[in-house]
C-alpha cells in the first residue's frame, strides 16, 4: 500500500498515503509524506506548519536554557523521486564566555539602573531642598517687610 525510499544521510523517506478526500479516493490520488522527524537529544520540536509529515510541513526546534539554536527550521519537500527534510537544526550549549558575558551584561544593567535611580532621587531631593530654602527665605523677607511697615 505504501512505497518507501530511505536516505542514509538524513533518514528521510517517502510514504504515499491515500487522502481522505472523497474525490481523491475516486481518482486514486496519493499524497507524499516525509518520515516523522526523530526527537532531538536536546530541546523540543514544534510543528509550525502542516501536520509534521505532509509535504510543506515546517518543524522548528526550541532549545532549553543555556543553549543556543544552530541551523534553520526543517521543511518537508518533494524531491525528484522522494520526499525529504530540508534544513538542519540542533541545540548547542553556550560557551562559558557567552553565558558569563550575558550574566555580566545583566549585572551591569542592574547596577547602572540603580545608579540612575539613586542620582534621580538625589536630584529631586536637592530641588526640593532648594525650593524649601527659597520658600523659607521669601517667608522670612515678607515677615521682615511686614514688621518694618508696622513700626
Automatic annotation (TrEMBL):
Chain segments carrying region Disordered: 1-27
Gene3D superfamilies: Complement Module, domain 1
Gene name, Swiss-Prot/TrEMBL: SUSD3
Stated name of the protein: Sushi domain containing 3
The keyword Transmembrane appears for this protein: yes
Transmembrane parts of this sequence: 104-129
GO CC terms of this entry: plasma membrane
Biased composition annotated in UniProt, kind: Polar residues: 1-11
InterPro entries: SUSD3, Sushi/SCR/CCP_sf
Residue ranges, compositional bias (Basic and acidic residues): 12-23
Keywords for this protein: Disulfide bond, Membrane, Transmembrane, Transmembrane helix
Amino acid at each position: 500500500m505504501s512505497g518507501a525510499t530511505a536516505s542514509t544521510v538524513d533518514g528521510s523517506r517517502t510514504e504515499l498515503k491515500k487522502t481522505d478526500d472523497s474525490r481523491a479516493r475516486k481518482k486514486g490520488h496519493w499524497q507524499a509524506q516525509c518520515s516523522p522527524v526523530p526527537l532531538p537529544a536536546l530541546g523540543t520540536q514544534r510543528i509550525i506548519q502542516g501536520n509534521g509529515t505532509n509535504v510543506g510541513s515546517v518543524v522548528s526546534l526550541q532549545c532549553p536554557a543555556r543553549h543556543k539554536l544552530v541551523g534553520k527550521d526543517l521543511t518537508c519537500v518533494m524531491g525528484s523521486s522522494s520526499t525529504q527534510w530540508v534544513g538542519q537544526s540542533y541545540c548547542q550549549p553556550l560557551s562559558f564566555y557567552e553565558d558569563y558575558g550575558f550574566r555580566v551584561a545583566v549585572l551591569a544593567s542592574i547596577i547602572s539602573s540603580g545608579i540612575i535611580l539613586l542620582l534621580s532621587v538625589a536630584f529631586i531631593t536637592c530641588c526640593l531642598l532648594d525650593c524649601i530654602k527659597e520658600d523659607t527665605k521669601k517667608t522670612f523677607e515678607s515677615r521682615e517687610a511686614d514688621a518694618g511697615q508696622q513700626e
